[in-house]
Amino acid sequence: MNSARLHAASELPYVRRTTATTEELLAGAFEALLEAGGLEARDVDGLGVASFTLKPDRCIDMAWRLGLNIRWSLDDGHGGASGVNMLRHAIAAIECGHARHIALLAGDVFGPDDFKELAANYNGTTRQYLAPLGIANPNTLFALLTQRHMRKHGLERADYGALAVGQRNWASANPNAVYRSPLSLEDYLAAPRVADPLCIYDCVPVVAGANAILLSHVSALPAGSPAIRIKAIDCNYNFDDQSGDGLTTGLRVISDRLFANAGVRREELDLVSVYDDYPVMALVQLEDLGIVAPGELRSFLNDRVLAGRFPLNTSGGQLSAGQAGAAGGLHGLTEAALQLLGRAGERQLSKADRALVSGYGMVEYRYGMCANAAILERAQ
Fold it and tell me: What confidence score (pLDDT) does residue 377 get?
């Protein structure tokens, strides 16, 4: 990872409805990425794409639409883990000399029936076993998981609300977020329930949007361009063969190794972006990564997250910014990159030198099978 540098990121404003196509949004994110990175389309010789609604097109079709002649391509279908997964492969490609400039794109546009069709036919297991039970919907599965998490840690709904409210406070400074209006803990507790104990603020809003990041070989960076070094990256898939309780992910296996390889201590992180399709999974990841110590979830949520004393998901996360399909897997990386490059606008942290980004997702039967994380550092 000594040769690859992340030096640009872009995100189109997330919207609830649009007449644009998935291809158009991905192209828009790519165009903004080139401008941010100081490159021309002809410079890009590697492309990775994550999308649920680009079908029947794939990465190579997108390359043609963008007019790219590439030496490296990647189609990624890992959902919430796609961003870190693509990043890992792109780093390897640059290290091996397979490409000099790689653009990674992710995005989706869901029509009225697209998301329902995706949820009901997410994979063969969902179609065969879950749909007949009437629970081919992630809200039901993660409501059950939240109940289990509440019992295990002695938490109440207000504790999960602290995360939702804390992230909404960050979203208020993000012009790309769908939900920016103030949200109080009282608002959260009074909100309509979706699947007990989840309310509408516990479930990511489905939106349209696209994200992109740009990696280049260190010797090919535009002159004077700020850049980010990937200090460490690790993944663990099919952690428990779907036989565990869902309250632990593969991040627990890789956590200590990740920090050791990065040469970074947890307290040296300036911001953390964890995949937040539901508050419970954000908390599980924070525990698995060792960022929150056992027995300290309640104090962490109320004394640090709600009080704005811990930079968690500074974009507002998907809970407030929205989940643009596969773009959700790249959302955290985009935000971390913008912060480390000093391009986060009104929400820019005064100190943003090191960040951790995690990915999670791809529910097979009961829980997500994929977990990965990367530690990023502003290059001096």
Answer: 98
Radius of gyration of the chain (CA): 19
pTM summary value: 0.96
Q: Can you list the domains of the chain with their CATH numbers?
A: 4-113+208-220 (3.40.47.10), 121-203+227-378 (3.40.47.10)
Profile the chain (380 residues) by mean pLDDT over runs of 10 residues. 93 96 98 97 98 96 98 96 98 98 97 74 81 78 96 97 98 97 98 97 96 97 92 97 95 98 98 98 98 96 96 98 97 98 98 98 90 95
